[in-house]
């Protein structure tokens, strides 16, 4: 099974090396063999699965983290696998006609097969972490497929939107998986099922459910995350067919289905799904009737269908699960047909606008037949499989325990809109008079018209013989989510029941609506007026605002002026430390100590203060440099008073050198200008005084704490005994910490070389006259 | 005395920061010198000050017999003074050099970011 999943990836790698040759005219159908082979591989499992023999396979991946590649093939997985590989086969074949001779055809097949592999992995994974990995891979391959026409800005933008939305969903899925894994101690869904009560009773159950919802709703384009899907229609039609109607967008539905037995049957789970599904299905079905672009219509009806599925899972009854299971098959069949048919029309006539298209049956009859078949199945008219699906949906709503009437009315409303949209997209382009400009439209090639006709026909075969899907697919699906399925019998004719009446009502209303309402550009403009309120434009505005805010923020903080950076840092420091000092300080001023002050101490301190004042307020460079020297010497004297003869000597030497160096270059230095204005000086002055005050308070606070003199004692004790030196400071520097001192001397030496070099270096004439 | 020294340290920091916030490059270097002096004094003060007892073992004894000033901060400051000299001397020469090349002392004018946009 691992090999089946990896085939897609391996094929993509193969294409990477020899792609151009592998997909050119002679071998155009070669890639189609991959999904076809996989389809046959999965069909073989129908026998086992329909006997309730589910298949489990585990490959160790990261066992220490509980992450394994464990795969389960049950009814649900089998259905999706067959959809992925079956529709995949048709889409691959269709692509060979649709993108015939395209420069990047090999790339396209590569992305498609990566997607196929990832999608198979997603529906077969039993481990939530590996499910997440495959989930993200589908998002990424979808990104490349939507943006396949990479020269179009709209395509790139749509691809980014889709990646953004589904990417966030993927992150939420990982979060949900981790929460569930933490609660149950395993990442395997099968093992989690055994701990259903523990999970549902856990305090983090709501969190886990919300995360799973977030993942499913973004992937399956539920309101308010639906807007990426219409945008994704920028992709070539095979992609829309494959990813955005039949498989990928159903991944969210799949996840909800899969998690239902584990997390379902709580009011939070069911009500959320019910409400979100309901809003999505009505909102987007309503939207679909205003569109004039065929793909736009189909995109909105797809969202609506996904809404119906979420809604059915939310109902959570036996009937609704059955309806959902059947509707997945029904929808995949007719919607893929629709999309392929649209692709052919677009490919041959270069337009998808339903207001322009008419009478195309005369030039492409098979495509018209496909459109008709899809529209009938979509509208739920017997004997199509769509009729069975629609019947089951009404069974689900009509027999629901609360507000059955309301739910049924909303379901009928949705279905009427969807039927209308189906007629507009599937029938309208082909009937009526053929305009002159389309008279020369060429007949499409075999691989363009055949796949939609085949799929459309299948919709009727399954409708006439529902037993074909009943035992092989529908029953195993119900088993795989823990429902009984012995009583399930799919059939077209149920006798005269209220449900039949509802179906007839839907069909009639849909047909009436088709004759009353004509699609026009005017109506589309009308609906776009409300765009400003849609989640899409809210998100876009948010993005724009965030960009502006970031720019403003950068301008303020990263403005390139060093002193502003310093100011901000100091201000922050003052605020942060000042905040902790609000409680008050512990230092007590010892007034008695002032009495012990000697005259020379007072004199030195006074000189020091005067020197500092002189530096700050000096008008000339020389005065400032001299004052710096005075400051240095005063500090030097302080060191003498307070028992630090070594420091005093060093300070004296260094200070002298600094002043000499300064004076040496003084006349080569610029004039001492006051560049900043009065206001800035006051502002900086206040900041500086606050900073100085903070340092003083900090120093006093530290002085109030007891001192730890272990290290000093060690040096004092061992200075003579170990190092045979009596000047302890000296001994520390040259003996105990001798290596440090050596490095320090190296630093000094490097600095000296730098100084020497800069002094000796002569300016080149170019540099001298640059300004 | 500690109290007064703490105030002086704060004053040094304040003056240093104020000078560093000026637009003139020379003032920035002077500010740097003041702040490094302030830092030295701060370390010295926090190691507690002792009058008249340098950390030198008397000639005839092997260990200290009476109180002594803490040698560790002194060793630290000694290193700091020397290193800051290295920094200062290099910076002073660099200003001179920079002034010769760009003919300005104003940090804002030296900011090449603005020029790139023009």
TrEMBL record, chain B:
Subcellular location, record wording: Cell membrane
Topology term for the membrane: Multi-pass membrane protein
Keywords assigned by UniProt, alphabetized: Cell membrane, Membrane, Transmembrane, Transmembrane helix
Stretches that traverse the bilayer: 6-21, 28-49, 75-95
Keyword Zinc: no
Domain of life: Bacteria
Predominant place of localization: membrane
Keyword Transmembrane helix: yes
Family membership: Belongs to the CPA3 antiporters (TC 2.A.63) subunit C family.
Cross-referenced PANTHER family: ANTIPORTER SUBUNIT MNHC2-RELATED (PTHR34583:SF2)
Protein name from the UniProt record: Cation:proton antiporter
Organism: Mesonia mobilis
